[in-house]
Amino acid sequence: MTTQELKYAILPETTDASRGKYGLLWGDARNANLSDQRSLGMTDHDKILYCHAWRRLAGVTQIISPDQEDIVLHTRLTHSEKVAQLSRSIALSLINRADRSNATLIAKLGGLDVHMAQAAGLAHDLGHPPFGHIAEDVLDQVSRVHGMEDGFEGNAQSLRTLVQIARWDQRSTRRGLRMTRGTYAAVLKYPWFREQLPETPTPLEEHRWKKFGAYDSERLWFEKARSWVPLGDTVPTLEASIMDLADEITYGVHDLFDFVGYGLIDLRDSLDRFRNGWKVFSDHEAQQLAALHPGYFGADDLEEAYEWLSGQVEIVNRFIPVTWAPAIPERAAARISSDLLDYFIGGTSVSEQPFWLDGPHLSLERKQFHNLYVLKEFTLKEALRIPDVAAQQRAARPLVRTILEAMFDWAENEPDSLPTDLRIRLLAADRGDDAISARIKALPGARQENDTDVARLGYPARLITDYIAGLTDHAARSLYKLIEPPGVEPIGRRVSL
Question: Dihedrals φ, ψ of 61, to 5°?
């Protein structure tokens, strides 16, 4: 099949669903007389590519912080590029190998657009804070102490970034990127809000409390983005499921080769532990996964996956010189990773019924599903055993807590001297009954409570958390040095605040 013959979309079954999916979240479509021949999904992709929030990811941790590193590892930006590329490949594969029956099913499930899946892959980590998941946990804990009931979550922050914070045009007076509902829905791999936990939560309730797709401040945009979706309320679109799979695959494959290639993970040690009976998942972890994927995640499948993983590790280990130099030859690494990607892409399918209770309609076949889970967990646990990685994570936690608490104190006591960007945001914040709201309200130019023409931005605590979450690793360290003694800097040294 030639490039010209490739199909890039299967439209939703109904006209109303198509109009909803390809309609903009707000505003009118671009001028049809312009020479721009891109699809709406590709236009969304390019808006993300040109916004500051995307470029920031070059300075944000994937697993190891890129700040001052001599070795070239994946950052959040290069990770997201690969997720976008793999999302495109999976979507193209599904569309172009679909027979009439499968094409009809895809249309019934809301259709599938290659460019929307690719855009979602590009955008999925826009909300990740400096230092990654460690900072995410700290931001969640501290923000809830300061009155934010739904705390902080990286996926919800990604949606907030897309609709409230990011701009692709510096001249734009409108917050957010003006994209299609279909692309916004494709970013929502967790299409639900954080709800209050019962006293004895089930594994699914606990999971949905920890992982969710939107804050209450973006409820209006969330509902509009999902208004056309012909699936259950908590079921992701096909594009969102593809993005989620591509994220998991990219983590398991490319991040593993990062660490192995630079000699940070010794696979000979891993193989020895496999031979001594080491299991990637503890019994408790395996039970939790079975509870989250009822009827699909099984013990027998997991044992087979361990055998597959041991074999894959053995294959990779053959290409590693004892001296670790020049590490894995690039050609061999490319071949092995390409084979793994083809293996997982080929195992992706669409089902009329969810793959498990309340699950997606698009996933991997059972064998590939279990193999991917053990590969990703292996990569994560081996990476966290690296002393330098563990040290960075231990250092990041108090650093992020210190700068976030300091910004709350600064906003409450001296808001007129806050960093310019944060001060401007706080002037437009919603007004609560907290001390920071009272101080901000008294500042010149502050939004008044009767300014009903201003779209809801969120209360001051949310905007302060936005500010910290929007830093790079380097900017977070620089702010820490300014705030924490001996961080007093000469006035003549210009620091961007």
Answer: -55, 135
Q: Is residue 495 part of a domain?
A: no
Count of structural domains, the chain = 3
C-alpha radius of gyration, the chain, whole number: 23
CA torsion angle 443 445 448 451 (round to 10): -160
380 shares its domain with 398: no
398 lies in a domain?
yes
Of 14, 85, 7, the residue nearest 49 (C-alpha): 85
**What is residue 40's three-state secondary structure?**
helix
HEC profile of 350-376 = ECCCCCCCCCCCEEECHHHHHHHHHHH
By residue range, what is the domain housing residue 171? 3-29+40-225
88/175 same-domain check: yes
Helix (H) / strand (E) element for 283: namely helix 283-292
Are 117 and 236 contacting, i.e. CB atoms less than 8 angstroms apart? no
pLDDT tens digits for range 313-368: 988 887 665 444 444 556 666 778 899 999 999 999 999 999 998 899 999 999 99
Cβ(68)–Cβ(204) below 8 Å: no
Per-residue DSSP letter, 183: H
Rounded to a whole number of angstroms, the distance between the first and last alpha carbons of the chain is 53
Say whether both 346 and 365 belong to one domain. yes
Same domain, 251 and 364: yes
The mean pLDDT value for 371-394 works out to 90
Provide mean pLDDT across the span 200-226. 95
- Report d(CA 402, CA 6) in Å as an integer: 52
Are the CB atoms for 417 and 445 separated by under 8 Å? Answer: no
CA dihedral 444, 447, 451, 455 (to 10 degrees): 150
